[in-house]
Amino acid sequence: MRIGVFTDSYRPYISGVVRSIDSFACELRKLGHKVYIFAPKYRGAPDELDVYRFLSVRPPTNQDFALAIPISGRLRSTIAKLKLDLIHTHSPFLMGQLGAHCARRAGIPLVFTYHTLYDQYVHYIPMMANFARWAVVHYTANYCNRADRIITPTSVVAKMIRNYGITTPITALPTGIDYQLFKGGDPNWLRKRYGIGQEERILLFVGRLGQEKNLDFLLHAVRLAKKKLPSQRLRLVLVAGGPEREHLERLAWELGLQDNVLFTGPLPPGEVAHCYKGADLFTFPSCTETQGLVLLEAMAAGLPPVAVGVNGVLDMVASDSDGLLVGLDLEEFSSAIAELLTDERQRLKLSRGASRKAAAYSTANMAQRLLALYEEVTAERGAGR
Fold first, then answer.
1. How far apart are CA 336 and CA 327, in angstroms?
2. Phi/psi of residue 299, nearest 5 degrees
3. Were 367 and a residue from 27, 95, 287, 359 both cysteine, which residue would form a disulfide, CB within 3.0 to 4.6 Å?
4. Which helix or strand (DSSP H or E) is residue 320 part of?
């Protein structure tokens, strides 16, 4: 097949969406299919085969991210030359709208992955939060109903967005992980690289330093866990970059955690694998995830998560089997951390369960499922559905 991928988020920017696009594209290409990516242009980013870049601007609220200007005089001829069988969009906004327009004009199927619960990001416009939430739900539902198929990373999210008035068929299909990469990290790398003592217990977070990740909650929970474990020294390692870093650094000082919190900034996948392998627990406070790809990566390394059990996280973690799920409550979250750091038998049991579960989510397995979905959608379009 010849697949066009349209996205507002792509390398060198790092996110779960970008990892999803790259992992699926890599596996589909291994299977002999052609994948062409249409994405924003970043200054200094190298030219890549089969990646088509659009002029972009940097939003004032996030200078690391580029917003594409979805206009190109060569796009029509490019699409015609590529002879695409299907277009897959990963945003309902700028590049997503362009992808939908191209699919309609070419008479080919449109598939859309609903990566993000957009209505849960309205904290970025607090003066109009209620209206913004309604507008985003209405907008995304209209976009979804123009597509031939919607993909959600989990069945929980599929049920949620069905209530938005979406009538297009929805398929739950998680993003896969490079299981061997994350299983095979170096357990000593993290302590050596950052001078963390052998006596310290490492709590790990991997993701983005944004308001939606609920990291204020995590810092407060670590402070409480510290009090519950006076004989243990805790170190929270945040492998992430993002706009909230300065705020979180200040909060760590205010809470007396300046010696207990380490900000590494973003790291390449191989080094992230070492971080997973060298930590004792994965701590995940986010309440906005459609999947939480980093949960599976941590689990592949045998790192059991303590997570807030909402939205897509509910499909990824089975409490008391491969991790612990708790409510959005500081006492519960800190108690779960303390429980697993004092009960080694329980922690090892969850570690084994986490590794077993993650093995089923390999990129190869998920790509085969995506390809079957593409073929089904293409056949339905050919049959006139």
1. 11
2. -65, -35
3. 27
4. none
3-state SS assignment for residue 203: strand
Q: Which DSSP string corresponds to 138-156? A: HHHHHHHTTSSEEEESSHH
**Helix, strand, or coil here: 191?**
helix
Cα–Cα distances in Å, from 318 out to 206, 283, 334?
Answer: 20, 15, 19
Alpha helices in the chain (DSSP H): 16-30, 75-82, 94-106, 129-144, 155-162, 179-183, 189-194, 215-228, 245-254, 269-278, 293-300, 313-316, 330-342, 344-359, 363-382
What is this structure's pTM? 0.83
Residue 173 has pLDDT above 80, yes or no: yes
CB neighbours of residue 145 within 10 Å: 13
Tokens of 84: 């695409």
Q: Which amino acid is at 104?
A: R
At 123 the pLDDT is 46
Residue the block writes with tokens 């979804």: 144
- β 200-208/324-326 pair status: unpaired
Question: pLDDT class for 126, splitting at 50, 70, 90?
Answer: low
pLDDT at 382: 78
Query: Cα-Cα-Cα-Cα dihedral of 242, 244, 249, 250, to 10°?
Result: 160
Q: pLDDT above 90 covers what percent of the chain?
A: 81
Nearest to 286 by CA among 357, 205, 177, 202: 205
